[in-house]
From TrEMBL:
Chain's gene name: fcl
NAD-dependent epimerase/dehydratase domain mapped to chain residues: 9-230
Recorded metabolic or biological pathway in which this protein acts: Nucleotide-sugar biosynthesis; GDP-L-fucose biosynthesis via de novo pathway; GDP-L-fucose from GDP-alpha-D-mannose: step 2/2
Name this polypeptide is given: GDP-L-fucose synthase
Organism: Marinobacter litoralis
Active site (catalytic residues): 139
Length: 324
C-alpha cells in the first residue's frame, strides 16, 4: 500500500463533485504526487491531446471521475451529448492509459447501468439482463461501454483496470443548477429558496413513490480508493473475469417523499409538499446490493440526514458563486 501511495496519480475530473472528493481522500491518506488537468489544460474529448498529456506526465494510477452528468431533465434534453461525450472521455482516457503503460485504472460508472426492472437489490450480475430506463439510456450505455473497455483491456493485455458503480451521489461541489441537477441538489436549492421567499408550498417532480439510495460523495471517494488499494489477489477473489465492476452504495433506500421531508427538515421549510405526478418518476426503485464491497472490507459511514446537512452547509457557503 505504501508503494501505491508514492506513485503518481492522475485524477481526471478533479474539479467535479466526485473527482474533488477523491483528491481530498488521497491527500488525507498521504498521497503526495497527485496530478490534475482542468479543461483549460486538457480537453478529454480530444484523443490526440489526451495521448500527448499521458506521454508527457506518465501517471502510474488513473481515477476516471470525469463525465457529463445530470438529472432526468438533462438526460432527456441532451441525450446526444450524454452518450457522445461520455463515450469519448472514457475511451480516450482508458486507451491512453494503456498506451502509456499505466497498469492501474479505476473507472467510475453509475447504478443506471442496470435494467429498469432489475431485481432489488441490484447485483452486479444483473448487468445486460433487461431493458434500461429510457430517460437515461444514452448515459447508461456509455457507462456500460466503460466497464467493457476495462474488462477488455484486462483480458487482452493483462491490465488491472477496475470499475466501481456508485448509487446516487451528493455532497460538496454538487451541481445546483435549477434545471440540470440531480434530485438532492435540486431539492436543497428549491427548499432553500422557498424558505427565503416565505412560500407555503414546494412542488416536487413525480409522485414521490419511487425509492432511491443516496451516498455521500466523501463515502464514494473512500470506497474508490479502498478498491484501488486492494491487492490484486484479494480483489480477484471477489470478482469474476468477465464481471469486474463493484457496486458502491449504502444498501439502504428511501422514497422520494421521505427524502423531500428530510430536506425540508434540514433547510427549515415548514410548508406543504406538493407532488406533480405529471412529471416522470424514472425507475421505480434503485437499490444496490453492496455485499461484494462489504466482503472487501468497506461500508458507508455517513447517514442521509448528516450528509444532507453537510451538503446544505456547503451550498450556503458557496451560494453567491453558484448564482453568479
Amino acid at each position: 500500500m505504501s508503494e501505491l501511495r508514492n506513485q503518481k496519480v492522475f485524477v481526471a475530473g478533479h474539479r467535479g463533485m466526485v473527482g474533488s472528493a477523491i483528491v481530498r481522500r488521497l491527500e488525507a491518506l498521504g498521497y503526495a504526487n497527485i496530478v490534475t488537468a482542468g479543461r483549460d489544460q486538457l480537453n478529454l474529448l480530444d484523443q490526440a491531446a489526451v495521448h500527448a498529456w499521458f506521454a508527457e506526465h506518465q501517471p502510474e494510477q488513473v481515477y476516471i471521475a470525469a463525465a457529463k452528468v445530470g438529472g432526468i431533465h438533462a438526460n432527456n434534453t441532451y441525450p446526444a451529448e450524454f452518450i457522445y461525450e461520455n463515450l469519448m472521455i472514457e475511451a480516450n482516457l482508458i486507451h491512453a492509459a494503456h498506451k502509456a503503460g499505466v497498469q492501474k485504472v479505476l473507472f467510475l460508472g453509475s447504478s443506471c447501468i442496470y435494467p429498469k426492472f432489475a431485481e432489488q437489490p441490484m447485483r452486479e450480475d444483473a448487468l445486460l439482463t433487461g431493458i434500461l430506463e429510457p430517460t437515461n439510456e444514452p448515459y447508461a450505455i456509455a457507462k456500460i461501454a466503460g466497464i467493457k473497455l476495462c474488462e477488455s483491456y484486462n483480458r487482452q493485455y493483462g491490465r488491472d483496470y477496475r470499475s466501481v458503480m456508485p448509487t446516487n451521489l451528493y455532497g460538496p461541489n454538487d451541481n445546483f443548477h435549477p434545471e440540470n441537477s440531480h434530485v438532492i441538489p435540486a431539492l436543497l436549492r428549491r427548499f432553500h429558496e422557498a424558505v427565503k421567499a416565505g412560500d407555503e408550498e414546494v412542488v416536487i417532480w413525480g409522485s414521490g413513490k419511487p425509492m432511491r439510495e443516496f451516498l455521500h460523495v466523501d463515502d464514494m471517494a473512500a470506497a474508490s480508493v479502498h478498491v484501488m488499494e486492494l491487492d490484486y489477489e484479494t480483489y480477484a477473489r471477489n470478482t469474476e473475469p468477465m464481471l469486474s465492476h463493484i457496486n458502491v452504495g449504502t444498501g439502504v433506500d428511501c422514497t422520494i417523499r421521505e427524502l423531500a421531508e428530510t430536506v425540508a427538515k434540514v433547510t427549515g421549510f415548514s410548508g406543504r409538499l406538493v407532488f406533480d405526478s405529471s412529471k416522470p418518476d424514472g425507475t421505480p426503485r434503485k437499490l444496490m446490493d453492496v455485499g461484494r464491497l462489504n466482503a472487501l472490507g468497506w461500508e458507508a459511514s455517513i447517514g442521509l440526514e448528516k450528509g444532507l446537512q453537510n451538503s446544505y452547509h456547503w451550498f450556503l457557503k458557496h451560494e453567491k458563486a453558484i448564482r453568479s
